Amino acid sequence: MQLPETQVAVLEAASADDPRTVESIAEQLDRKPAAVTRAAFELEDEGLVAVHESTEESVSLTEEAETYLEDGLPEVRLYEGALDAGGDGDSVQMGQVIGASGLDGDAVDIALSNFARKGYGEIDSGEITPTPDADPDSDAEAVALESIADGDSASVSGGTLDQLERRDLIERSERTVRSVQLTDAGVTELMAGVETAQEVDRLTAELLTSGEWRDVEFSEYNVAADAPDIDGGRSHPLRSMAERVKDVLVGMGFEEMHGPHADAEFWINDCLFMPQDHPARTHWDQFALDVPPMGELPDDVRERVESAHREGVGEDGQGYHSPWGEEMARQIDLRGHTTSLSARYLSGLAEGDLEPPQRYFSIEKAYRNDEIDSTHLLEFFQIEGWVMAEDLSVRDLMGTFTEFYEQFGITDLRFKPTYNPYTEPSFELFGEHPVTGEVVEIGNSGIFRPEMLEPLGIEHDVMAWGLALERLMMLVTGAEDIRDVHGTLVDLDYLRTEEVRY
């Protein structure tokens, strides 16, 4: 029988009596474990060996545990400090004990939290009373740390390991151990004699011209054999969705806006006719930055915005009759919505004076101090957009949404009237989640009020919206929790396996 060289070596190294691990065979043959594993599976397919798999748990110490091995557990040091401070059965002031123990920083809290749990004594009213007959030398956790350091984690009880893991003093990991054992057929073939065949993994010009291809053994590729996982780079699903939205809006005749993430409250709120004493403008809803205020605001726009807040716009305008100060308007915040970009563009600051018809959009991040849940994060992507034209109506706005969302297969839009300080009429958009059936809010919209447009120098109608990119992605892909998609709790498996959608 002829076999490739590595298979012959593995077959000869295997035993019929006791399984041998792949690692031990690889070390003996001076070959990589991956090559030995591949050969073992190929021999198993021939019925010459059996491959056994088992799971092996390993335990290692963290850096904190390494420190405790050298200095002692904090609770043990606290106990010894109490004895040194004269507390052999008597109470001692906590400060005196801590000083005697040499503990500081987080180690003090760790010591106090474990002192009574282990029966080293009592803590009451700022005093520590150590137990005279406690035996810190037999502390189970300290002994366990020494055993693990010596490579004998098997001698440590499961309960102690669990406690050490809760204290972040150990790290547990599992790995698959493969062992190889000769079968009866393998023994028979070895006794009959196994020869090494010349093996090649590709057909070359030299093999063809020389005719040697007739006598060589070609490697077989076992596509079912284990191989290391390689996660190649790919576009984030949210980024792919943003690019798709951009393509759709550009196709509908829109131009893209750009602007700062950190901006003056003037552009974020004041230009949107949001009063300065509005509760949404407190630190509970938006993020204020401790940086110097914005130095320059366009005087003409600033004066008209202030007038709109104080006195209103037009003959019937009322304004808010509430405090308005330029100092607050200049303060820098992270923008709570990308409508600040719309204010910059409509004012002429970004692109100069604009004449209708105009269509603009942006897909940018906004930041709000929301309560985190399956549909809210502290930062999110907003699809901002507006259209400037003559005689716009709510029907034009609804028709724009219908055309836009149809590009993503969403045809069951629902609309509900709402209130915004800067639009009237206003309405929210809702769509049905394809998996849960839940009706999800996906955006807000309306016709900009005169109190916003006139101070910016706009004499035409402007309809506008802010749509949630993450919510759109959830409706398209069926994702149920935005925290799985991005943020600190992102599901990497989801990002690696999410199918490409067009």
UniProtKB/TrEMBL annotation:
<dbReference type="InterPro" id="IPR036390">
    <property type="entry name" value="WH_DNA-bd_sf"/>
</dbReference>
<keyword id="KW-0460">Magnesium</keyword>
<comment type="similarity">
    <text>Belongs to the class-II aminoacyl-tRNA synthetase family. Phe-tRNA synthetase alpha subunit type 2 subfamily.</text>
</comment>
<keyword id="KW-0479">Metal-binding</keyword>
<dbReference type="GO" id="GO:0000287">
    <property type="term" value="F:magnesium ion binding"/>
</dbReference>
<feature type="binding site">
    <location>
        <position position="424"/>
    </location>
    <ligand>
        <name>Mg(2+)</name>
    </ligand>
</feature>
<keyword id="KW-0436">Ligase</keyword>
<dbReference type="GO" id="GO:0005737">
    <property type="term" value="C:cytoplasm"/>
</dbReference>
<dbReference type="InterPro" id="IPR004529">
    <property type="entry name" value="Phe-tRNA-synth_IIc_asu"/>
</dbReference>
<dbReference type="InterPro" id="IPR002319">
    <property type="entry name" value="Phenylalanyl-tRNA_Synthase"/>
</dbReference>
<dbReference type="Pfam" id="PF01409">
    <property type="entry name" value="tRNA-synt_2d"/>
</dbReference>
<feature type="binding site">
    <location>
        <position position="422"/>
    </location>
    <ligand>
        <name>L-phenylalanine</name>
    </ligand>
</feature>
<feature type="binding site">
    <location>
        <position position="448"/>
    </location>
    <ligand>
        <name>L-phenylalanine</name>
    </ligand>
</feature>
<comment type="subunit">
    <text>Tetramer of two alpha and two beta subunits.</text>
</comment>
<dbReference type="InterPro" id="IPR036388">
    <property type="entry name" value="WH-like_DNA-bd_sf"/>
</dbReference>
<keyword id="KW-0067">ATP-binding</keyword>
<dbReference type="GO" id="GO:0000049">
    <property type="term" value="F:tRNA binding"/>
</dbReference>
<dbReference type="GO" id="GO:0004826">
    <property type="term" value="F:phenylalanine-tRNA ligase activity"/>
</dbReference>
<protein>
    <recommendedName>
        <fullName>Phenylalanine--tRNA ligase alpha subunit</fullName>
        <ecNumber>6.1.1.20</ecNumber>
    </recommendedName>
</protein>
<dbReference type="GO" id="GO:0005524">
    <property type="term" value="F:ATP binding"/>
</dbReference>
<feature type="domain" description="Aminoacyl-transfer RNA synthetases class-II family profile">
    <location>
        <begin position="245"/>
        <end position="497"/>
    </location>
</feature>
<feature type="binding site">
    <location>
        <begin position="382"/>
        <end position="384"/>
    </location>
    <ligand>
        <name>L-phenylalanine</name>
    </ligand>
</feature>
<dbReference type="InterPro" id="IPR045864">
    <property type="entry name" value="aa-tRNA-synth_II/BPL/LPL"/>
</dbReference>
<feature type="binding site">
    <location>
        <position position="339"/>
    </location>
    <ligand>
        <name>L-phenylalanine</name>
    </ligand>
</feature>
<dbReference type="GO" id="GO:0006432">
    <property type="term" value="P:phenylalanyl-tRNA aminoacylation"/>
</dbReference>
<dbReference type="InterPro" id="IPR022917">
    <property type="entry name" value="Phe_tRNA_ligase_alpha_bac/arc"/>
</dbReference>
<keyword id="KW-0030">Aminoacyl-tRNA synthetase</keyword>
<feature type="region of interest" description="Disordered">
    <location>
        <begin position="1"/>
        <end position="21"/>
    </location>
</feature>
<keyword id="KW-0963">Cytoplasm</keyword>
<keyword id="KW-0547">Nucleotide-binding</keyword>
<keyword id="KW-0648">Protein biosynthesis</keyword>
<dbReference type="InterPro" id="IPR006195">
    <property type="entry name" value="aa-tRNA-synth_II"/>
</dbReference>
